[in-house]
């Protein structure tokens, strides 16, 4: 079954393929599907934004489309960056600069608890939607560490591993990450949906 990922993010595409590819799902990026979409993320939740992107790709292609919207929520910052994680600080900052911005805002806070959240939405041409979510709790490190992963991974410290997400291997990250958990939950929900024969 071919599913269009409503994104051209190579890191996301790799993670989707690593987790869903073994079950016979062919995941292709929107550019590989010939789509040139830039959907405005006007939702107030990760789930709303995931749906907006998947729905746009499904409508444009007439095929099954999937999207995730994910980000970092830092408790002491009232849930920031939240749904603005990708464009935190105005949208022109690099991943490293966004990490430094979070660290700067946290410099006077003792509470460094945080969580990564991922919401997945898969839209079918008949209008059906399969959704899933996942989260990973951790704390914000004192400084960026590790060259693996992307986004806020270098400052997100996972206590059970004693390392940041940026220091974990791909397999380690997929086993505990918000997107990894969301994808596994989605995989279960998709199998239930397909088993009902509603496609």
Task: Tell me about this structure.
By secondary structure, the protein is α/β, with parallel strands linked by helices. The protein has a single domain, classed as Maf protein, CATH 3.90.950. Helices cover 32% and strands 23% of the residues. The protein has a seven-stranded mixed sheet.
For this entry, give a set of tags:
single chain; 199 residues; alpha/beta; Maf protein; seven-stranded mixed β-sheet; 7 strands; 23% strand; globular
Query: What is the rounded distance between the termini?
Result: 11 Å
| Count of extended strands | 7
What's the SSE pattern?
EHEHEHEEEEHH
Number of DSSP helices? Answer: 5
The largest pleated sheet is described as: 7 strands, mixed
Class derived from helix and strand content: alpha/beta
The CATH C-level name is Alpha Beta
What is the CATH architecture annotation?
Answer: Alpha-Beta Complex
- Percent range for β-strand residues: 15-25%
Look up the CATH topology: Maf protein
Mean pLDDT, all residues: 93
Work out the helicity level.
Answer: 25-40%
Q: Low-confidence parts, pLDDT < 50 over ≥5 residues? A: none
State the strand order across the main sheet.
2-1-3-4-5-6-7
Shape verdict:
globular
Radius of gyration: 17 Å
Task: Compute the number of structural domains.
Answer: 1
């Amino acid at each position: 079954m071919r599913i269009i990922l409503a994104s051209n993010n190579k890191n996301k595409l790799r993670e989707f393929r690593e987790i869903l590819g073994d079950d016979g799902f062919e995941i292709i990026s929107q550019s590989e599907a010939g789509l040139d979409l830039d959907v405005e993320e006007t939702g107030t939740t990760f789930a709303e934004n995931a749906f907006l992107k998947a729905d746009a790709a499904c409508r444009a292609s007439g095929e099954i489309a999937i999207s995730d919207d994910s980000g970092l929520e830092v408790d002491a910052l009232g849930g920031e960056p939240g749904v603005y994680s990708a464009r935190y600080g105005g949208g022109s900052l690099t991943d490293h600069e966004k990490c430094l911005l979070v660290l700067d805002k946290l410099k006077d806070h003792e509470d460094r608890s945080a969580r990564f959240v991922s919401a997945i939405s898969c839209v079918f041409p008949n209008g059906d939607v399969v959704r899933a979510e996942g989260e990973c709790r951790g704390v914000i490190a004192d400084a960026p560490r590790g060259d693996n992963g992307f986004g806020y991974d270098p400052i997100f410290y996972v206590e059970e591993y004693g390392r940041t997400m940026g220091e974990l291997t791909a397999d380690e990250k997929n086993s505990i990450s918000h997107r990894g958990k969301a994808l596994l939950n989605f995989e279960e929900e998709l199998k239930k949906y397909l088993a009902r024969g509603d496609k």
